[in-house]
Specification:
mainly beta; four-stranded antiparallel β-sheet; 2 helices; 25 strands; 3% helix; disordered N terminus; binds 2-acetamido-2-deoxy-beta-D-glucopyranose; Gal_Oxidase_central_sf; signal
């Protein structure tokens, strides 16, 4: 249970340089200046703006420098106007999150039990469903009660998405933590939250052949079982541990609410290397867009390029319909402590990518 403790940010400033992606709509150009006015104390592994004044950050269970209630903070609620942090509790490395249409954030799956030290213990989060309904008075916590609310089985590295009926589709993953998925731990199925009775499965997991066919490159999967999409161009791999980012571009009257997805980053490296990956693995600068209609799928992917390669780029939809590509590095693979040449003690990442783009 998180207490309403909070901590003032310290002030630092950083510059963010922005350049336009080739072929992007010509909005006002120039340089941005990002005023980074504080420090959340936890790494923004999973960041969501959950209301007009609050953001949540879900970090891995780590010995983070920010301590509250006698232990390090992992998930945190950030109050944007006051720049204060409140701690929440969950073990969410390799989890996934989506909003229900009623505004409640549903975060599911996660990491096995972690025991860093006596005061730094993360409960087994693999089968968890965590509900967070944003509030303005610091009264809301993550609701996680494995006795009453849980996935049909353990999942690490699942994906989720909100469906048109306002429910959430939770898809794939492994039953255990691993750098790359394999047949022993693959969990080739999907489910819904709230649960649905589809084809008589009555809330149980529904098997998917796609997740059988794509092991082992299917952590955080990007696809559906109905239509096989054309291959990502130029041999770019986008699933973990190459972990590209994807967005559904804005559905507008101007585009007649036609769904178009864009996937940026990833890597062209061989995915059969098992544990021989390097922190110097080059990333891809590719952004590929596909219109999800029969005609669009027949036309295929449209390829653009970011100014710098970055596998796990953050893609953020801006209010004016543009997409900000931010953060990450020019060489790496996902995870930590899984390369033969780590940077520092455990980092799989090197060469920060400092040229952000819209
Ligand atoms: C949204 O729906 C979920 C699932 O039915 C429910 O548990 C949650 O309390 C609802 N949130 C709000 C804000 O009503
Ligand atoms: C966590 O590990 C410590 C040793 O570092 C041990 O003393 C403690 O019993 C463990 N706690 C649990 C809940 O396993
Ligand atoms: C699958 O991965 C798990 C976790 O890393 C490992 O224990 C298991 O041996 C692997 N199985 C195969 C068939 O590679």
């Amino acid at each position: 249970m998180a207490l309403a403790l909070s901590r003032r940010f310290s002030s630092v400033f950083a510059l963010l340089h922005c350049t336009m992606l080739a072929g992007a709509v010509p909005f006002a150009g120039g340089r941005w200046k990002l005023a980074q006015e504080g420090n959340t104390g936890v790494s923004a592994m999973q960041l969501a703006v959950v209301s007009e004044t609050k953001a949540t950050i879900f970090d891995k269970v780590e010995a983070n420098p920010l301590q509250m209630n006698g232990r390090p903070v992992w998930p945190a609620e950030v109050d944007l106007p006051s720049r204060t942090v409140r701690d929440l509790i969950a073990n969410t490395w390799c989890a996934t999150g989506s909003f229900l249409s009623n505004g409640t954030f549903v975060h599911s799956a996660g990491n096995p039990f972690v025991n860093i030290s006596q005061s730094d213990i993360g409960p087994d989060g693999r089968q968890a469903i965590r509900m967070f309904t944003p509030c303005t008075d610091a009264s809301c916590d993550i609701i996680e009660d494995a006795q009453r609310l849980r996935l049909t089985s353990r999942r690490c590295y699942a994906s989720s998405a909100r469906l048109v009926d306002g429910t959430i589709f939770i898809f794939g993953g492994s039953t255990d933590n691993a750098f790359i998925n394999n047949v022993t731990i693959n969990y080739p199925s999907f489910e819904f939250f709230p649960p649905k009775n589809i084809n008589g499965f009555n809330g149980l997991q529904i098997p998917t052949q796609f997740m059988e066919d794509t092991v082992k490159g299917n952590h955080f999967p990007y696809t559906n079982t109905e239509v096989q999409l054309p291959r990502i161009p130029n041999g770019v791999r986008i699933s973990s541990p190459f972990s590209a980012s994807a967005v559904l571009l804005p559905l507008t009257q101007a585009n007649n609410f036609t769904p178009e997805i864009m996937i940026c980053g990833g890597s062209v490296v061989d995915d059969t290397l098992e544990n021989q990956y390097s922190s110097q693995t080059p990333a891809s600068a590719q952004c590929a867009r596909l219109v999800l209609t029969p005609a669009g799928i027949a036309t295929g992917w449209k390829v653009e390029s970011m100014p710098q390669p970055r596998p796990m780029v953050g893609l953020i939809l801006l209010p004016d319909g543009r997409v900000l590509a931010v953060n990450e590095a020019q060489t790496d693979v996902a995870g930590y402590d899984s390369t033969f040449d780590p940077v520092g003690l455990e980092s799989n990442t090197d060469k920060p990518a400092l040229t952000d783009a819209v």
